[in-house]
Design a protein that fits this description.
Blueprint: H1 3-13, E1 15-17, E2 22-25, H2 33-54, H3 81-103, E3 116-120, H4 127-136, E4 144-148, H5 153-163, E5 170-176, H6 182-197, E6 206-211, H7 215-223, E7 227-231, H8 244-252, H9 257-271, H10 280-292, E8 299-304, H11 312-324, E9 341-342, H12 354-359, E10 364-371, E11 381-383, E12 386-387, H13 388-405, E13 410-415, H14 420-440, H15 449-474, E14 479-480, H16 481-487, H17 494-505, E15 511-514, E16 524-527
Parallel strand pairs: 3-4, 3-5, 5-6, 6-7, 8-9, 8-10, 10-13
Antiparallel strand pairs: 1-2, 2-13, 11-12, 14-16, 15-16
The structure holds 6-O-phosphono-beta-D-fructofuranose.
6-O-phosphono-beta-D-fructofuranose (F6P) binds at residues 122-125, 176-178, 181, 184, 237-238, 322, 448, 451.
C-alpha cells in the first residue's frame, strides 16, 4: 500500500474517544473489508452475549456465576438493588477507612499513623494492584506499598527486610477471593510470625479482602482483624481491579480511585456499543481474531512506550491468558484456545528482542501503547531542537514502520497521559476486548479449570512428603529411595519422592542423602 493509501486507511479505521483523549489505530493490521464483512455475524452475537452478561446472565456457566465487573464502575447496571447497594457501600467503606488511616484516626497500637502497606496476594489478587501502583504511584504517597505475591521464602525475606524497622506502622492487606490460596496463606503466616517476633499485635494491623464466609474471612473475624472488605463471587480475580481488591490498596496510596472508576465507566459506555467502528474493544477483538486466525496463532506483544506502564503486559498476561487459554469451547469441543501475551516496554525492548520481531519468526502482532505527553512540564533538549521524549516518540514510530515494512502487524493505542482515568480506561478496555473475543471464539472466559490441576498436584506432593517423613522416622538405618517409595506405598511416585527429599536435604530439614548426587538411584536416605 502506498503512503497515500495508508494515510487514508489510518483515517478510515481511526477510533478516537473524545472524553478520554484515547486513540486506537488498527490501520497496520492487514485485514480487508471482506474479513470484516464475514465477521459481522459473529460480532453481532458477541454484542448480544455481552449485553446478557451485563444484565446479569449466568455468563460463567461452569461456576454458575454472574460476571459483574462492569457494575463496579456503574452500580446502576447491577441487576438487583441489593447488589447496587453492596457496591456503593463497599466503595464508601473503602473511602472512609482510607481517610481514617490517612488522618491517623485509625492507627496501629504502637504508632500514631500507618506509614506502609504490605499487600499479600497472588494472581488477580496482586497483578492489578501491582500494575496500578507502578503506573500511578505518587512520588510521596501517604503510605508506601510493598507486595508479597509468592510463596518464595527469599522473596518474603526481602520484603520483610525492607520493612523491618517499620513493621509497627505497617498495615497488612491479605487479599484472596477464595480465601484459601496456599501462597497467600503462607505469606500471611510468615508475616504474622514476623509481627509476633517483634511483639506486635498482627490482628490490630491486618485487613482481609476476601469472599464473605471464606476461610480467610472466618480467620479475620475470629482473630478480630482491623477490618474486612468483601470480594464478590460475581467478580473474577483477574477482573477485580475495580473491586476492593484494587481500590483499597490504590486509595491507601493516595491514588484517585473515583477517577479510575470514572475512566473505566467512560470507556465501558463506548465498548458497550454494538457498532464496530465506535467500539474500541470490538475493534481490538476483531484484530486479535484476524491476527491469530481465531485460534491464537499469533502472540500479543505489548509494548508501552512509558516506564510507568511496565507492568501492563504482566497484568494482561493473566487477564488474557487465564481468560482465553481454554481446552474446550462452550459446546464441549476440544479447541485449545488462547493468545500468548508478553512484553515489557519500549524503547527498552528494542535493545532486547525487537530484532526477532523485525526479522525472525513472524508469530506475533504488536500493540504499541503511546503516551502523548512526555512529562509534566517542559523538557530540556538533548540535542539541538530534540528532547528525550522526541526520541521515545520517534522510536515508537520507527519500530511500527519497520515492522510494517516486514509484514508484521501492529495496533497502536494512544493516550494523553498516564493518570487514574486513563489507567481505569485501559483496564476496562481490555476487560471488554477479552469478553468479546471469548464470544467470537465461543469459549467461557470466566473460569480457570486448568489452574486446578497444578494446585491439586502440588497438594498431593505435600501429602506425600508427610507420608515419606513418617516412614523415614521409623527407619533405624539409611535406605534407598526405591525402598522408601515402596514402604511409603507410593512406588509410582519415586521421582517426586526423590525431588522432595533433595529439597528437604538442601534446607536443613533433617534429611541426609548419601551417595552419588548425580546418580539418584545410588542414594541412601535417612532422617536425623
Ligand atoms: O484471589 P485468590 O482466590 O487467592 O486467587 C488468586 C488467583 O488464583 C487463581 O484462581 C488461579 O491462578 C486466579 O484466577 C486468581 O486470581
Amino acid at each position: 500500500m502506498d503512503a497515500a493509501a495508508l494515510w487514508q486507511r489510518y483515517q478510515d479505521w481511526l477510533y478516537y474517544h473524545e472524553g478520554l483523549e484515547l486513540y486506537l489505530d488498527i490501520s497496520r493490521m492487514g485485514f480487508d473489508d471482506a474479513f470484516v464483512e464475514a465477521m459481522l455475524p459473529k460480532l453481532e452475537k458477541a454484542f448480544k452475549d455481552m449485553d446478557a452478561l451485563v444484565n446479569g446472565a449466568i455468563a460463567n456457566p461452569d461456576e454458575n456465576r454472574m460476571v459483574g465487573h462492569y457494575w463496579l464502575r456503574d452500580p446502576d447496571l447491577a441487576p438487583t438493588p441489593e447488589l447496587q447497594q453492596d457496591i456503593v457501600n463497599t466503595l464508601d467503606k473503602i473511602e472512609t477507612f482510607t481517610q481514617n488511616v490517612h488522618t491517623g484516626a485509625i492507627h496501629p497500637p504502637r504508632a500514631p499513623k500507618f506509614t506502609d502497606v504490605l499487600s499479600i496476594g497472588i494472581g488477580g489478587s496482586a497483578l492489578g494492584p501491582e500494575f496500578v501502583a507502578e503506573a500511578l504511584g505518587l512520588d510521596y504517597p501517604p503510605l508506601a506499598i510493598h507486595f508479597i505475591d509468592n510463596t518464595d521464602p527469599a522473596g518474603i525475606d526481602a520484603v520483610l527486610a525492607q520493612l523491618q524497622d517499620r513493621l509497627s506502622s505497617t498495615l497488612v492487606l491479605v487479599i484472596s477471593k477464595s480465601g484459601g490460596t496456599p501462597e497467600t496463606r503462607n505469606g500471611m503466616v510468615e508475616v504474622k510470625t514476623a509481627y509476633e517476633s517483634q511483639n506486635l499485635d498482627f490482628a490490630a494491623q491486618a485487613v482481609a479482602i476476601t469472599g464473605v464466609g471464606s476461610k480467610l474471612d472466618q480467620l479475620a473475624k475470629s482473630e478480630g482483624w482491623l477490618a474486612t472488605f468483601p470480594m464478590y463471587d460475581w467478580v473474577g480475580g483477574r477482573t477485580s481491579e475495580m473491586s476492593a481488591v484494587g481500590l483499597l490498596p490504590a486509595s491507601l496510596q493516595g491514588i484517585d480511585i473515583r477517577q479510575m472508576l470514572a475512566g473505566a465507566k467512560e470507556i465501558d459506555s463506548a465498548t458497550g456499543s454494538p457498532q464496530l467502528k465506535s467500539n474500541p474493544a470490538a475493534l481490538l477483538a476483531l484484530c486479535w481474531y484476524f491476527a491469530g486466525n481465531g485460534k491464537g496463532e499469533k502472540d500479543m506483544v505489548m509494548l508501552p512506550y512509558k516506564d510507568s506502564l511496565l507492568l501492563f503486559s504482566r497484568y494482561l498476561q493473566q487477564l488474557v491468558m487465564e481468560s482465553l487459554g481454554k481446552e474446550k469451547d462452550l459446546d464441549g469441543n476440544t479447541v485449545y484456545q488462547g493468545i500468548a501475551v508478553y512484553g515489557n516496554k519500549g524503547s527498552t525492548d528494542q535493545h532486547a528482542y525487537v530484532q526477532q520481531l523485525r526479522e525472525g519468526v513472524p508469530n506475533f502482532f504488536v500493540t504499541f501503547i503511546e503516551v502523548l505527553e512526555d512529562r509534566q512540564g517542559k523538557s530540556p533538549e538533548v540535542e539541538a531542537g530534540v528532547t528525550a521524549g522526541d526520541y521515545l516518540s520517534g522510536l515508537l514510530q520507527g519500530t511500527r514502520q519497520a515492522l510494517y515494512e516486514n509484514q508484521r502487524d501492529s495496533i497502536t493505542v494512544s493516550i494523553r497521559q498516564v493518570n487514574a482515568r486513563t489507567v481505569g480506561a485501559l483496564i476496562a478496555l481490555y476487560e471488554r476486548a477479552v469478553g468479546l473475543y471469548a464470544s467470537l471464539v465461543n469459549i467461557n472466559a470466566y473460569h480457570q479449570p486448568g489452574v486446578e490441576a497444578g494446585k491439586k498436584a502440588a497438594a498431593a506432593i505435600l501429602d506425600l512428603q508427610k507420608q515419606v517423613m513418617e516412614v523415614l522416622h521409623q527407619e533405624s538405618a539409611a535406605i534407598s529411595i526405591s525402598e522408601l517409595a515402596e514402604k511409603a506405598g507410593a512406588p509410582d511416585q519415586i521421582e517426586g519422592i526423590y525431588k522432595l527429599l533433595r529439597h528437604l536435604a538442601y534446607n536443613q530439614r533433617g534429611i541426609v542423602l548419601e551417595g552419588n548426587l548425580g546418580q539418584p538411584s545410588s542414594l541412601k536416605v535417612s532422617a536425623v
